[in-house]
Amino acid sequence: MTELHLWLRHEARTTERRTPVVPDDARRLVENGVELTVEESPQRIFPIEEYQAAGCRVAPAGSWVTAPPDAVVLGLKELPDEPVELTHRHIFFGHAYKGQPGAAGLLRRFAAGGGALFDLEYLVDDTGRRLAAFGFWAGYLGAALAVLRHRGRLRAPLVPTTKDELDETLKPADTDADFTGLVIGALGRSGRGARVAFATAGADPTCWDLAETRDLDRAALLRHDVMVNAVLATSPVPPFLREQDLDTPDRRLRTLCDVTCDVGSPLNVLPVYDETTTWDEPVRRLRAQPPLDLIAIDNLPSLLPLESSADFSAALLPHLLDFGVAGAWARCLDRFRQASREHGPDEGEPHAH
Ligand SMILES: NC(=O)c1ccc[n+]([C@@H]2O[C@H](COP(=O)([O-])OP(=O)(O)OC[C@H]3O[C@@H](n4cnc5c(N)ncnc54)[C@H](O)[C@@H]3O)[C@@H](O)[C@H]2O)c1
């Protein structure tokens, strides 16, 4: 039996309906001796009663700030701006190790409070593979939105939905027989999701991964109606598309969906736009004639909060049951310490409880 006290917090971002632990998995944690406190949250896709029924203790939204010092605070996205000093151990996606905006500020808050960040992006096995990720649903949604746009059936603003509802809109009845789709990064999690969504829409996309882009054929790329970029770039490669490619006279490409959304990064393989798109305005026209539309939404899985939470929670559960024991958490903490040294303030190394 572990003596872990987990504190599942309310998400500060109002559109964030996902959760890293769903009620069924909360029950498993409680049955395995984890003390689990769940904050009330008006937007979480699962009602608090389901957590209560699973044996969790309920606390008000945002009360993690006064949680016992040994509690491990669990969430997905950014913390609120207060308190300035973070004293707890936190598990969430910090987006703070690559010099992102706000990164140094977050690391400074941990240094000031003596807390620690277990960043979910860096919870990896001993080969470096991510243990819990939302990629599949990001790719699924990316391809689905791109196909809907191509068919002139994408409605804005986007709102969270369910897979059944989404699939209903994707039914292949009116698929253009000549339709050509392309997924780059097709062997990854997002790429797989994109392929499944294309299949649901009645399309059989061209699939490229590392082998097919090594000697990049941009003319072939431009011969697809829809392209979904789902790569995880780890070192710079020549861009898949440059400004001049968009002006190729016989370009067939009409819809470009960038699931990767590395905009502004030196690793960006699509330096043809400089701002992501949003749920309110999911599409931006990059070229008028022939038209070329961009979809580049950086929180795609939040549009399917139920399915993406369930998958993520299932992947995270075994590691939560091993919290503090397994090597993955030690690696995660090492990464935090390294980032704090590299990017953080010079106020001494933070310590973990
Ligand atoms: N937009 C969103 O809401 C959202 C959500 C989740 C993930 N993502 C992003 O999606 C990307 C993919 O995530 P994932 O979980 O699928 O990663 P993954 O590691 O499972 O898959 C990435 C794939 O890209 C391939 N790849 C890497 N470089 C390539 C290249 N130059 N050419 C062709 N293929 C290449 C890899 O071989 C791998 O198959 C990441 O950048 C991730 O941050 C975006």
UniProtKB/TrEMBL annotation:
Keyword line:
NAD, Oxidoreductase
Gene3D superfamilies, per this entry?
NAD(P)-binding Rossmann-like Domain
Query: From which domain of life does this come?
Result: Bacteria
> Which SUPFAM superfamilies did the record assign?
Formate/glycerate dehydrogenase catalytic domain-like (SSF52283), NAD(P)-binding Rossmann-fold domains (SSF51735)
Q: Name one Pfam family in it.
A: AlaDh_PNT_N
Every copy of the Alanine dehydrogenase/pyridine nucleotide transhydrogenase N-terminal domain together lies at 7-141
Looking up CDD domains in the UniProt record yields: SDH
SMART domains noted in UniProt: AlaDh_PNT_N
Q: Which family does it belong to?
A: Belongs to the AlaDH/PNT family.
Q: What is this protein called?
A: Saccharopine dehydrogenase
